[in-house]
Design goal:
With about 900 residues, this protein is α+β, with helices and mostly antiparallel strands. The chain has three domains: about 1-40 and about 90-455, no CATH class; about 465-620, no CATH class; about 645-755, Jelly Rolls (Sandwich). The protein is built from 28 helices and 30 strands. Helix 6 (about 135-145) runs parallel beside helix 19 (about 435-455). The longest helix has 26 residues, at about 105-130. The two termini are about 35 Å apart. It comes from Lacticaseibacillus saniviri JCM 17471 = DSM 24301.
Length: about 900
């Protein structure tokens, strides 16, 4: 046994890399994660967003490289370079290419395990470079790889690369005197892989460099020289990554950056002592995701050693003072709003607070490792007393306030307290001659971090493998029914939705999107035509005949109406009722879904009246906006009313009390009522589509709605008045719209019913369809075609969102496109036949490429000039001997 342990001890890199993987793999097997059962790692944003981006990554690499720049999968179309920079630049993503598209959730498991192992490996590399040896190397590496931050952010898989690269960058910074280019290259790679977390690493490196400067101080001259090396090497690293950073920065100004906080509150965000709760094993649950405390758990061994560092007189008082000040700055950053905002680029995180706290886990473990390099036999009595006070203080405070920490139980507190006391005991009897203490503490830390995995990850629920797989494959099969002969540009809509990025998962031009790098103009437009929208997302769930036509939604996918509905709908979440799809042509069906073709789809571009340039859309008037758009596009001399108001009866209520106001009525559940309903009735006298509008107050599952007892889905999140299709099946009969309150009260704002004059609307749509843009070529970032303009004062109207980066040529000459309804590109054209081309190239990409190119040449020149053949030959001869 001793020989086996000795052999393991001599291979710390293997232990540091493999042990975190084995722990996590064991947990996944125990939780029946596929292929060991029917569970998965898909939860929250990983299941609702990132996995679809990874599918898009596979498509881009395996056959559609043009998607790297732009995509019409991103709602109606949008820049993708910024999306890649935020989500998809990790080199680890290439492992997903070895998994079929139908098994992407299994690929996510492999990717996650690889990142856990890599985090342990790079931390081991750093600690070994700093002089640590023996069992302490894998012990502290596991502490880093399975820290509270790593586990809490397992689902934010693209951020884990920052944890992997941070030790490498810091190790390179340590040797900047001798290898400045190594630091520059690693810093550039870190920024390219994930600029967002890379920004946080850059802030941390300022403090870390200050620590190294004090730690390695020899003279003022050397200090200034080192400062100069740090500045120019950092600038070189930034320049090498400019090809991605500059266009990404521009996209931030168009999307995420528009939400930057301009007013800062000089306050603490929570009572500071509450951060002590995060030193307890498994200090995490679901409620900590939207708003919680920093995840900084690193295990009892690392924490106690980090505290001991400040009492170690082997280190200069200047070094320990600087470390104390920087530790204080990091601590205050995790609770003081201005500093919290600084670390997050002046934006409050939407969920996952204190994302930068991974640098704190690194800092604590770094201090623990430094303590171990210069630790005397055992610890002094005064140190023992100090640590006892700290341990009692932490555990005592948490115990007294345990009811305030819903993510902790007495069992977790006992485990942590026991681990801390055992650590204290074994450190007290440690000696330089004893090899057993590090081994014992290694196993203690191994056990504590394993329990941390169990307690932390058991707090989350996950999408089952079968739900994910069955839905995506069913949708893929339905999309495959689109005729391969249809080479025109078109979009696809659907009444089912697993995620708002389904189009990226399957690979078709869709209508929905959930994306942090999302241009605000698109959600603004969706809201004005009655579709669910918010900061960073849109969902086209309740289109009308008019909006379907204008947005070129040529194909529609919906559940089959025959067969067993319970069997079909179990894995097909329906988000819209579209009885008007019966007006479209059925083109095919699978065992679960039906494909319809919209005969009124207008294509990506068509000739229209210049009146659309003067059209301004209103808030909370979605049907009026659609009516105005169609009137303006067709150039109607006399305004054509397409949506007429249909009278609703006075509401009949059950189990509610009513309070009327000028802007609507608020209905409140009566205390003893089992159900609370508000019912309207109306009569349908034509076969035309009927649409119901609901105000923004109906969001968040406020009510459930039925039409004659059949459910009418309401998408659960929106901020504007939305449109629902409530076309009845039978005419001239009383129709009942019943709202059931799901919460204590509901404000009935903007509740109104309208009938679309189908004949008039389709006549105007057909007028526009007579002069289409005939697309001759299109890919992810360019589109060209011909168009025949038959009258003066016309323009080519497109539903391509206008953005800087588009170049438009007409008959070979560059023209400046106009913006219509706050979103789309339109091009004024003279009478006659024209060739039109649209090409997208990300703004500032050329400048970024130029800067990175110059930086790369400079790097190569420095590398050549610093190369010394004699020195390298000597090293090779030394290794041979």
């Amino acid at each position: 046994m001793s020989r086996f342990l000795s052999h393991l001890k001599q291979h710390p890199y293997w232990l540091a890399a493999i042990l975190p993987v084995l722990i996590m793999l064991g947990y996944y097997i125990g939780c029946h994660v596929y292929p060991f059962g029917n569970s998965s790692l898909l939860t929250v944003d990983l299941g609702q967003q990132y996995i679809d981006f990874y599918s898009y990554f596979r498509q881009t690499i395996l056959g559609h490289p043009d998607q790297f720049l732009y995509s019409f999968n991103k709602a109606l179309g949008g820049d993708m370079l910024g999306v890649f920079a935020y989500y998809l630049m990790s080199p680890f993503n290439f492992i997903l290419l070895f998994f079929p598209k139908s098994m992407l959730d299994t690929g996510i498991v492999a990717l996650t395990l690889l990142k856990y192992g890599s985090a342990g490996l790079t931390m081991c590399y750093y600690l070994k470079k700093r002089g640590l040896t023996g069992w302490w190397l894998p012990a502290l590496s596991i502490s880093y790889a399975l820290s509270g931050w790593m586990l809490a952010n397992q689902l934010n898989i693209m951020w884990l690369d920052a944890v992997i690269f941070l030790p490498l960058v810091c190790a390179a910074l340590d040797s900047i005197d001798h290898h400045p280019l190594r630091y520059s290259l690693l810093l550039a790679l870190t920024l390219i892989v994930n600029y967002y977390m890379g920004y946080m690493i850059c802030l941390f490196l300022i403090g870390y460099f200050g620590f190294t400067l004090v730690r390695d101080w020899t003279s003022v001259k050397h200090g200034f020289k080192r400062i100069g090396q740090f500045i120019w090497s950092s600038l070189l690293g930034g320049a090498l990554s400019a090809w991605l950073l500059l266009p990404t920065f521009f996209q931030l100004t168009q999307s995420k950056g528009t939400y930057t906080v301009t007013k800062v509150h000089w306050k603490f965000e929570y009572q500071p002592l509450k951060i002590l709760s995060k030193f307890i094993t498994g200090s995490f649950n679901f409620d900590q995701m939207p708003s919680g405390y920093p995840n900084i758990f690193v295990g009892s061994v690392a924490l106690i050693l980090a505290i001991l560092y400040f009492t170690n007189k082997h280190f200069s008082w200047q070094e320990r003072l600087f470390s104390l000040l920087w530790s204080g700055f990091l601590t205050i950053s995790m609770m003081f709003e201005p500093l919290d905002l600084l670390w997050h680029g002046m934006q409050f995180p939407v969920w996952y607070p204190y994302r930068f706290s991974f640098v704190v886990t690194f800092w604590l473990i770094m201090l623990a490792g430094r303590q171990l390099t210069r630790m005397d036999d055992g610890i002094a009595i005064w140190q023992l007393v100090l640590l006892l006070v700290v341990i009692i203080g932490i555990c005592g405070y948490v115990l007294v306030n345990l009811d305030s920490f819903g993510f902790l139980t007495p069992t977790q507190l006992v485990i942590t307290g026991s681990a801390m006391m055992l650590t204290l005991i074994f450190l007290s009897v440690n000696s330089d001659q004893s090899h057993i203490t590090p081994l014992i503490l290694f196993f203690l830390l191994f056990a504590e971090m394993t329990l941390n995995v169990v307690f932390t990850l058991n707090q989350l629920s996950y999408v089952s493998h079968s739900d994910y797989h069955t839905y995506t494959e069913s949708l893929r099969a339905a999309a495959a029914k689109i005729p391969s002969s249809d080479q025109d540009f078109y979009r696809v809509g659907k009444t089912v939705l697993r995620t708002k990025n389904d189009a990226m998962q399957i690979g078709y031009n869709g209508t929905d999107q959930f994306n942090s790098m999302f241009e605000p103009a698109v959600p603004a437009f969706y809201g004005k035509i009655g579709q669910p929208a918010g900061d960073g997302f849109v969902a086209y769930t309740s289109g009308t005949l008019i909006s379907d036509a204008l947005l070129d939604i040529k194909y529609w996918i919906s559940p089959r109406t025959d067969g067993d509905p319970l069997l079909q709908h179990a894995f097909l979440p329906t988000v819209a009722s579209r009885p008007d799809l019966n007006l479209y042509t059925k083109r095919g069906q699978t065992s679960n879904l039906t494909l319809h073709q919209n005969p009124y789809a207008l294509g990506i571009g068509f000739v229209a009246s210049q009146n659309i340039l003067k059209t301004r859309l209103f808030s909370d008037a979605p049907l009026a906006n659609q009516e105005m758009m169609l009137n303006a596009l067709t150039g109607q001399k006399a305004y054509s009313v397409l949506f007429s108001n249909v009278a609703l009866s006075a509401p009949k209520t059950k189990g509610v009390s009513a309070a009327k106001a000028t802007t609507g009525t608020t209905y409140t559940k009566k205390p003893i009522a089992k159900t609370a309903t508000v019912t309207y009735t109306f009569k349908a006298t034509t076969n035309d589509p009927y649409y119901l509008t609901l105000g923004s107050s109906f969001t968040d599952n406020l009510v459930s709605l039925t039409l004659n007892g059949e459910a009418v889905p309401i998408y659960d999140t929106f901020r504007d008045t939305v449109v629902l299709n409530v076309t009845p099946k039978q005419l001239n009969q009383t129709q009942k719209l019943t709202f059931t309150l799901n919460k204590s009260s509901a404000w009935f704002k903007d509740v109104a019913l309208y009938r679309l004059d189908q004949a008039a609307a389709t006549a105007e749509i057909n007028q526009l369809a007579a002069n289409p843009l005939v697309v001759t070529h299109h890919n992810a970032h360019s589109l060209s075609g011909t168009v025949n303009v038959r009258e003066n004062n016309q323009l080519l109207m497109t539903t391509i969102p206008k953005a800087k980066g588009w170049t438009v040529t007409v008959d070979g000459k560059v023209v400046k496109p106009r913006t219509t309804v706050g979103l789309f590109m339109a091009v004024k054209l003279a009478k006659g036949q024209h060739k039109v081309q649209f090409t997208y190239w990300p703004p500032m990409l050329n400048l970024g490429l130029l800067i990175s190119g110059i930086a790369a040449l400079l790097t190569g020149l420095i590398s050549v000039m610093s190369y010394r053949p004699g020195r390298h030959s000597y090293h090779r001869a030394t290794r041979k001997s």
